[in-house]
User: Fold 3-isopropylmalate dehydratase from Glaciecola nitratireducens.
Amino acid sequence: MKTLLDKIWGLHAVCELPNDETLLYIDTHLIHEVTSPQAFSGLRDKNRTVFRPQNTFAVVDHNVPTVNQSLGIQNISDDDSRIQITTLESNRKEFNIPGYSMGDKENGIVHIVAPERGLTLPGMTIVCGDSHTSTHGAFGALGFGIGTTEVEHVLATQTLRIKKPKSLKITLTGEPSTWTSAKDVALHVIATIGASGGVGYVIEYCGDYITALSMEGRMTLCNMAIEAGARSGMVAVDQTTIDYLNKTANANAKYPILKSDPDAVYDKLVVIDIDGLEPRVTWGTSPDQVCGIHDRIPALASDSTKAEELKYKRVLEYMGMYSGEELLSMTIHKVFLGSCTNSRIEDLRLAASILKGKRIKVGLSMMVVPGSGAVARLAEEEGLKDIFVKAGCDWREPGCSMCLAMNEDKLLPEERCASTSNRNFEGRQGRGGRTHLVSPAVAAATAIKGRIAHPMEVL
Ligand SMILES: CC(C)[C@H](C(=O)O)[C@@H](O)C(=O)O
Ligand code: SF4
Assistant:
């Protein structure tokens, strides 16, 4: 009667520690340039080394420019970005850590690259100094984000001191509408349980919708478990997982069909009906401020407190909207197709299928940032890049880009963006920028119309 979480935990618990903590063995440690510098400095200060460099893998993604990466790191004008990238390069050399440098043809966003390279496998524990490490749970693995001090601990020992999270089973019932994707379901889950509804839990997604969902869709869903406050998201291993791994990791390997026992006991159970669910769009500055695409900006609840009223007014003011305004009437200046939520090949295929033979609205700009070199190559081979370019989109090189605006890709104050990324808080995509989180299909339709649009409006 064990859950998937119990099983993976049991296989990795080295010993129990005081204060309810477990010393957990870590199979794969992913690192990037933002949260690793202090961890390496810590190692050096204590005269320690990296215990298992071969189980560590580095990419540079947050700060990299999305144009002219081949010109090299010295070409990056922002000092912080250049220093972070250079520091990771030198730490990798010093500690013998495998990975990709800027401009490497396989480099990309850490959560896209690792699954693609077979570094994410069923039953593994995977950590990274990055909250969206939850993405890897799509493979029946336990992936979660850690802080910089913990990065140092994992580098030094390949283990982590951690309290076991509680388990939350979310069963999705019914069939959503045709143009509703995993992104929309992720937003609906967050809206239903709230942005802190998952705090203290690892979510396991179950139900027929999940069984039928592609690996890319499962990654999108697990990626955004964090936006519901959860430590991670996971999906049981099934034939879809195995088929994907046979293509990407190793065609001859035997992978364990790891799943929860039928009578497994969870700490909490939630059932969410997604029957007929329409595409979702966020209207506010929290990922749980979500509406159906045909809805209007919701009014303030009549039983709201003064504090809630002030917060609501602040959100509308920042977003430049009014209560009752129609989402479909919202003029959009920029569209961002990218991020570890939605920059896999399936996302690009979907957006390209809508943009094929069409032009994006005059005055609007759309940036397409593939999640990795492999995604970019495949998109070029399949003719997707051509479709985007012909439609007037800006085809870029891989990286986090306008998901968090640590490079040149930013919104200007009051610019409104339909973005396939995962966070919409104030300033996330540039100071004063306004973010609406959407699916790749809605992003493409929106680019054509110049306002939030349902794919059916352009097909
Ligand atoms: C920079 C990093 C620590 C951060 C995270 O952990 O999520 C980033 O990836 C993000 O999406 O905000
Ligand atoms: S794409 Fe966005 S969410 Fe993902 S790791 Fe990069 S910054 Fe974080």
